[in-house]
């Protein structure tokens, strides 16, 4: 166990941010969580909640007082637009004496990540997770309605990662030496098809779940009906139809950084089995 430190977590209500908070608490550290609306935030006991917005960095100075580490996201504001405030945030970080910064990679180059990588005076670590296991929760409503998962490109491969393992890698990088200047690809311990995922969820939930493969045209029609923008649809077609090698290759980052194996999709499915069970 390292000496107790105080860490500021931005994006603390998000899928990964909540896991960073949980892992830091489990390791005995103090956590300050940044949110735009403290009244709507719910965190475990002991978390200090402060209001702030990464799009208005000058208001962050009080939140940075006394912290040794900072976890950043690359998007901000109500519209979740790419943050352009990285240089100013780094100025405040250095002025506050923050030693370590982690950045959750946004899927491609972003102004904030570029600013952090170019910044002097802090040990930065970029977290580059592949597909989240939590993405499978998008199937809950379809399974409840028809007992089916309807997806295109069902043979596609994914080394999907438990969101808790992203939080664990972040917690170590924020509180221990030796991770500065690193860009960590974070994966699970196995490569799975969509069929593998559906079978695993069915076993965990104790029910039958059918997998229906959609054509590309059917998938696009459904995404448009759901209101997805055309650029998002294009991203999904590329990611699913031509998954890059990094997204379908197991990396040993979780075990290397945390000292324990990455969690499997079966473990994730068991944790979330109630969401997929038949409803009375």
UniProtKB/TrEMBL annotation:
It comes from the Bacteria. Pfam families: NAD_binding_10. Residues 11-106 form the NAD(P)-binding domain. This is Putative NAD(P)H azoreductase. It comes from Streptomyces afghaniensis 772.
């Amino acid at each position: 166990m390292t000496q107790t430190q105080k860490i500021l977590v931005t994006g603390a209500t998000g899928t990964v941010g909540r896991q960073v908070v949980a892992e830091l608490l489990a390791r005995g550290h103090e956590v300050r969580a940044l949110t735009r609306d403290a009244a709507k935030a719910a965190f475990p006991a002991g978390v200090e909640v402060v209001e702030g917005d990464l799009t208005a960095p000058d208001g962050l100075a009080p939140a940075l007082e006394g912290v040794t580490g900072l976890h950043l996201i690359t998007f901000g504001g109500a519209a979740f637009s790419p943050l352009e405030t990285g240089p100013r945030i780094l100025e405040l970080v250095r002025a506050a004496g923050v030693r370590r910064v982690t950045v959750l990679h946004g899927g491609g180059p972003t102004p904030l990540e570029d600013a952090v990588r170019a910044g002097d005076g802090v040990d930065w670590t970029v977290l580059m997770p592949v597909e989240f296991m939590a993405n499978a929760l998008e199937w809950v409503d379809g399974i409840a309605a028809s007992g089916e998962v309807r997806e295109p490109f069902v043979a596609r491969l994914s080394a999907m990662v438990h969101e808790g393992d992203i939080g664990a890698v972040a917690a170590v990088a924020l509180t221990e030496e030796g991770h500065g200047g690193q860009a960590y690809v974070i994966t699970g311990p196995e490569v799975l098809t969509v069929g593998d995922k559906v079978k695993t969820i069915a076993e965990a939930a104790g029910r039958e779940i059918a997998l229906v493969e959609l054509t590309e045209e059917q998938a696009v029609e459904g995404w448009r009906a759901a209101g997805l923008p055309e650029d998002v649809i294009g991203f999904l077609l590329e990611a699913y139809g031509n998954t890059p090698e990094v997204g379908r290759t197991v990396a040993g980052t979780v075990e290397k950084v945390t000292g324990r194996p990455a969690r499997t999709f079966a473990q994730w499915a068991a944790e979330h089995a109630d969401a997929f069970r038949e409803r009375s």
